[in-house]
């Protein structure tokens, strides 16, 4: 008789292990799917959300580019940083602690061009100590496009690419990145101001090469090594 009483108990324990919460399946009602309604992630319309998402991605990439990287040169770091700041008013502090403010227009190979209503500023990357976006967006200059160019120019560009591009600073910047020495060729024959350490030199730009520029001041030629230049200012 005792064995007959123990058997049902063992079977019951086994059932308890097999059935969650010891609830017989026949007692559970059939589960009906609950209605699910998508909730909006943002109160903005979809097209605005897409633009905001793009700006967030660009901002994250900018922060990543601004981070220190032992494998990245100073030129590449500032190139990527200023690429994300085109059209934005920024404040740049040089190694003397001086502040240059303007709209980012040309992130070149080894320098950046800032512009305000009166002046064009060319700042070498090696002289930059700090970059601070001022938070004021400006209307960006139209991007250079080659979709509607003259058919003859398109043919020359296709079959004589090196010759055509090398003769135009704008095309060099478009296809590659223009170095400061090439950019200054645009202003050859014009009055410019060059900051060297704590000295400002103003004169006529008469010659530009890879390593130096020549300013004519009061009839005298002044040869200025490009590596010593802190800032170049040109009237817009």
Quick structural gist:
This protein is of the alpha+beta class. The chain has 7 helices and 10 strands. A hairpin with a 3-residue loop joins strand 2 and strand 3.
Q: Helical proportion?
A: 25-40%
Number of strands: 10
Q: What would CATH call the architecture of the largest domain?
A: Roll
Euclidean distance between termini CA atoms? 110 Å
- The helix/strand order is HHHEEEEEHHHHEEEEE
The largest sheet has its strands arranged as 5-1-2-3-4-10-6-7-8-9
Overall radius of gyration: 33 Å
The low-confidence parts are: 1-5, 137-141
Q: How many independent structural domains?
A: 2
Q: How large is the count of helical segments?
A: 7
What do you see in this structure?
It is a single chain. The chain is an alpha+beta fold. It folds into two domains: 46-137, SH3 type barrels (Roll); 151-235, SH3 type barrels, CATH 2.30.30. The protein has seven helices and ten strands. The protein has helices at 2-18, 46-66, 74-83, 151-159, 161-166, 169-175, 180-183, and strands at 88-94, 99-107, 111-115, 119-124, 128-137, 191-196, 199-208, 212-217, 220-225, 229-235. Strands 5-1-2-3-4-10-6-7-8-9 form a ten-stranded antiparallel beta sheet. Strand 6 and strand 7 form a beta hairpin. Helix 2 runs antiparallel to helix 3 (74-83). The longest helix is centred in the N-terminal third of the chain and has 21 residues, at 46-66.
SSE topology:
Layout: H1 2-18, H2 46-66, H3 74-83, E1 88-94, E2 99-107, E3 111-115, E4 119-124, E5 128-137, H4 151-159, H5 161-166, H6 169-175, H7 180-183, E6 191-196, E7 199-208, E8 212-217, E9 220-225, E10 229-235
Helix pairs in contact: 2-3
């Amino acid at each position: 008789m005792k064995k007959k009483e123990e058997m049902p108990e063992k079977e019951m324990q086994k059932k308890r292990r097999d059935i969650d919460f010891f609830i017989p399946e026949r007692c559970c009602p059939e589960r009906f799917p609950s209605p699910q309604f998508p909730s909006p992630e943002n109160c903005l319309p979809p097209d605005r959300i897409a633009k905001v998402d793009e700006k967030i991605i660009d901002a994250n990439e900018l922060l990543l580019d601004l981070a220190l990287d032992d494998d990245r040169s100073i030129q590449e770091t500032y190139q990527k940083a200023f690429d994300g700041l085109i059209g934005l008013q920024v404040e740049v502090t040089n190694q003397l602690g001086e502040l240059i403010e303007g709209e980012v227009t040309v992130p070149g190979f080894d320098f950046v061009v800032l512009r305000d209503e009166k002046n064009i500023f060319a700042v070498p990357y090696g002289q930059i100590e700090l970059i601070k976006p001022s938070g004021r967006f400006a209307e960006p200059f139209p991007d250079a496009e080659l979709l509607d160019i003259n058919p003859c120019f398109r043919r020359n560009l296709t079959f004589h690419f090196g010759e055509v591009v090398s003769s135009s600073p704008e095309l060099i910047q478009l296809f590659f990145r223009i170095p400061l020495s090439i950019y200054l060729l645009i202003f050859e024959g014009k009055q410019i101001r060059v900051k060297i350490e704590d000295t400002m030199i103003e004169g006529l730009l008469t010659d530009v090469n890879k390593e130096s520029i020549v300013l004519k001041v009061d009839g005298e030629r002044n040869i200025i090594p490009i590596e010593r230049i802190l800032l170049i200012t040109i009237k817009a």
